[in-house]
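User: Please predict the structure of the protein below. I'd like the answer in structure-token form so I can feed it into my own downstream comparison script.

Assistant: Understood. Taking the following sequence of 414 residues as input:
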Amino acid sequence: MIPLLETVALVVLAVAALVALRVARHQVTRLEAVDFVRIAFASRLAQGEAMDDLVAQVVESLRYAFALDAVELWLADDGSLRLLAGAPPRPEPPASRRLSGSPPSVTGGVPVSGAAWARDGLPSLLDGSSAAVRVAPIWQFGRLLGVIVAAREARGWRLAGEVDATLEELAREVGYALNKARQDAVLQQTLIRLRHQADDLLASRARIVHAADSERRRIERDLHDGAQQYLVALGVKARLIHELIDRDPARTRRTSLELAGDVERAIEALRDLARGIYPMQLGSSGLGAALAEACRRAGVATELDVSVVARHPVEVEAAVYFCCAEALQNAAKHAGPDAVATVRVWEETGCLRFEVADSGTGFGAGGRRGDGLANMSDRMGAVGGELEVESAPGRGTRVRGRVPLTAPVAVPDA
């Protein structure tokens, strides 16, 4: 009898040892699944491995460790969920699933829930499955980044006790990695945008230097060909009058009258030159008066509407004035003989805004965008403003600009 009892005891001990060994192996496998995410996942992601490949290994490890029928990881984006990885993989990737309303908040320290939670917040994930389901939301800073869904038919009643702790760990670590990946993507986009802005700034500075050099050469040429010629003529006639004043009084009177006319023309030439550099009326009377004069001199019929009362910094008023003048010049050159232009300047939401529109021929994508538009854009950029140009063939051209304003400045009377 005793040997029989000993045999039974040995069998029981063997079975218990085998069960313990299997349990230990399952525990080791489960720990490996957690360790893969906690240790390997983050480091391998930081080393540049593709997120899709790493997540595929995560769900496959989880499925194997807990003998699950299916494990899927879905990412949340703009109110939708899309499948990132699944084990086993689906024959055809499903379409994105819309979230039904706001997903339930994770409360009471229970970040892993069952089918009831999924049916309430994410019913499209279940697809009518009768398997036991555990859903681990991936949260970071109150934002739902995704969900991990685990399903098993056999021994489904044990699923929560077996996988919840691991799913919670996985969801937390994957959440850290996803959040970091998204922040890295945003940072990369910001860096690219800053590089583009830096390139634009360098190009703008080069254009400004070139424009300044060209403007200096223009002023020199205009002085030489215009005002200087009048002044030379004035000197010649002044000496002639001195020589003729006693010998030929009649000719002296005629030369004196010519001299007076030459003086008027020299003054007008200097005014025209100064107007091209900085309009006197802009400094003394403001945008309304300066733009009214620009509209009168424009080679296109123009209507003006300026509702700006306060004065603003010189560089702001000059930028708006010269952009409007350049836009009018472009309209005179390209809009056509029957075109009509309108100029509007107004204040709105802390900005000084302007718009120059014409009813002319317009241009399409890739059409005329010469130095004039580049100069206007540079002027706006120099004062922290923005420029927008709209045009289409047969529909005219519309140039809009805005400059952020500080407090208006007081300008003394001239």
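That's the full token string. The beta strands are 70-77, 80-87, 97-98, 132-140, 143-152, 301-306, 340-348, 351-358, 386-391, 397-404.
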